[in-house]
Design goal:
Blueprint (H helix, E strand, L loop, with lengths): L9 H9 L3 E4 L4 E3 H17 L7 E5 L3 H13 L3 E4 L6 H11 L3 E5 L14 E5 L19 E6 L9 E5 H12 L9 E3 L7 H13 L2 E3 L6 H10 L4 E5 H9 L10 E5 L5 H9 L4 E7 L4 E7 L12 E2 L3 E6 L7 E7 L5 E4 L2 E3 L7 E9 L5 E6 L3 E4 L2 E4 H9 L4 E11 L3 E10 L7 H11 L8 E4 L13 H8 L3
Parallel strand pairs: 1-10, 3-4, 3-5, 5-6, 9-10, 11-12, 12-13, 25-26
Antiparallel strand pairs: 1-2, 7-8, 8-18, 13-14, 14-15, 16-17, 17-20, 18-19, 20-21, 22-23, 24-25
């Protein structure tokens, strides 16, 4: 693991100490740290020649994980700040976030020229491809762990994506905290299983470069390809959201013997899925974290902790979790203190703190049991206030989801002239169930107070979700509230 007090960049340190060690693997290629360093030098020169100034924020738009990694390393070498853009956004969304963050230059994969045609003409395009020509380059200047390293965006499932600013120190401490529990070695191989425009995916790359292990970038992400690469490439670590992992488990794919841990996060995780995965020998670790915490801050090894399997695990060393404003004496808002907390959010040239007195108020509701395990029970921002009564949307969802015919649900507030807000729901019936709301309504009346029963229920065949497996609330609301 790279020391904390180095004066050179992470890549330079690894080249100095393990130059020939494998760093990035793909279907057809294997690159050492030194080979990647030469390509990064070439790309850094290209960015310099295109007029990128030191400390300038540069958006990276690419469909290739390898090119995003190379562009980020090259921008770091020039003391720039990469801003990773989600290609699943509409062009209007991309234009909006570029404006919000104050971007004046974008580094674009050459084959995406047509995609960025409608981006503001005031923004300079810098086209690049995987660099084949290696040129000698200078070392990263004035490296400091406190420098801004990266801007990523929150998933935007409930509102417009928000730019989050990370320092190198934030990213380093996130890795350091989890590495104390899951010790990496140079022989480990991480699967690049998540998108790099999300913190969970970007931190896979960070863990690799900090630990000196390698990262495998699959050519395809369908289940057959993932199964093939985890066996053939001797993958030891992977992170999945539950929707990805469920596809593997549903196909009865067994864990290869090489696997050390598979981390599951990104939202609620069904215990039935975890138990089925354990039966297939998967070493499942549930984690809890957020973009603002630089990824995971708690974990639980599910095979070893069946008693606490419903929990999100215990905080890592150097992470302190407290519960604020316990309305019922037990549960309250989850508050995190850690050196991995992001520096802040950004709008234009202004930065705004994410913390209050060094504490991050997550908006999630939960409790710590007597053994220190964290349990997530809901979102404080999803409280429905009906006639002065507070209703937990998650509480209503939990009751709905216990009905034997219901696969999943989402509860939200409907405006009401009399009560201010009333609960409403979207439900998805199981494929084997008969679609009939009458028994569902009767069940809810038996199990909930009248004021908590949804006053309107919509039926969908599936809930829209983003690429991280979270319910896309913005898209969902457009369906249930057209116009």
């Amino acid at each position: 693991m790279i020391p904390t007090d180095i004066k050179e960049s992470w890549l330079e340190w690894q080249i100095k100490h393990v130059a020939d060690a494998p760093f990035i693997r793909t279907e057809n290629s294997l690159f050492s740290f030194e080979e990647i360093g030469r390509k990064v030098n070439s790309l850094a020169h290209h960015f310099q020649n295109m007029g990128v100034s030191r400390q300038e924020k540069v958006a990276v738009i690419s469909g290739s994980k390898l090119e995003i990694i190379l562009a980020s390393l090259a921008l770091w070498q020039n003391n720039n700040i990469p801003v990773i853009i989600n290609l699943l956004w509409s062009l209007d969304q991309i234009n909006e976030v570029l404006s919000d963050v104050g971007i004046m230059k974008i580094a674009v994969q050459s084959e995406l020229k047509d995609v960025v045609n409608r981006i503001s003409p005031d923004i300079t395009r810098i086209y690049f491809d995987f660099p084949e020509i290696s040129e000698p380059g200078e070392k990263q200047r004035n490296f400091s762990s406190m420098n801004d390293a990266l801007i990523l965006f929150t998933s935007g499932s409930t509102s417009k994506p928000k730019g989050i600013v990370f320092s190198f120190d934030n990213l380093f401490n996130s890795f350091k905290n989890m590495n104390e529990r899951y010790n990496h070695s140079q022989d480990d191989i991480w699967l690049a299983s998540l998108p790099l425009y999300h913190i969970g995916g970007f931190q896979i790359f960070v863990r690799s470069i900090l630990s000196g292990c390698s990262i495998y970038i699959p050519g395809k992400t369908d289940i057959a390809s993932i199964e093939s690469c985890i066996n053939e490439q001797k993958i030891t670590y992977a992170s999945f959201v539950s929707t990805q992992f469920k596809k593997l488990v549903d196909e009865n794919v067994k864990s290869p013997s090489s696997f050390r841990k598979v981390f599951l996060g990104g939202g609620p995780i069904d215990t039935e899925l975890i138990n089925k995965a354990i039966a297939l020998n998967w070493p499942v670790v549930k984690v809890y974290g957020a973009t603002e915490t630089s990824s995971m801050v708690t974990s639980i090894d599910c095979s070893d902790n069946q008693k606490e399997i419903e929990s999100a695990g215990k905080p890592f060393n150097n992470v302190v979790i407290t519960i604020a404003e316990k309305s019922d004496g037990i549960s309250g808002e989850i508050v995190v203190r850690s050196a991995s907390l992001a520096k802040g959010s950004i709008n234009g040239n202004e930065s705004f703190p994410l913390t209050q007195n060094g504490l991050y108020y997550s908006g999630d509701v939960g409790y710590l049991n007597e053994d220190g395990f964290l349990y997530i029970t809901g979102r404080s921002k999803r409280t429905i206030i009906s006639g002065g009564e507070n209703i937990s949307a998650l509480e209503v969802e939990n009751v709905i989801n216990q009905h034997p015919d219901i696969a999943e649900s989402f509860v939200f507030a409907d405006n009401d002239a009399k009560w201010g807000e009333v609960p409403a729901a979207v439900i998805v019936f199981k494929a084997s169930a008969r679609i009939d709301l009458e028994p569902v309504n009767a069940y809810l009346k038996e199990n909930l107070p009248t004021y908590k029963c949804p006053k309107r229920i919509n039926i969908l065949f599936e809930l829209p979700k983003n690429e991280m497996g979270k319910i896309d609330i913005v898209s969902l609301m457009k369906i249930v509230r057209p116009g």
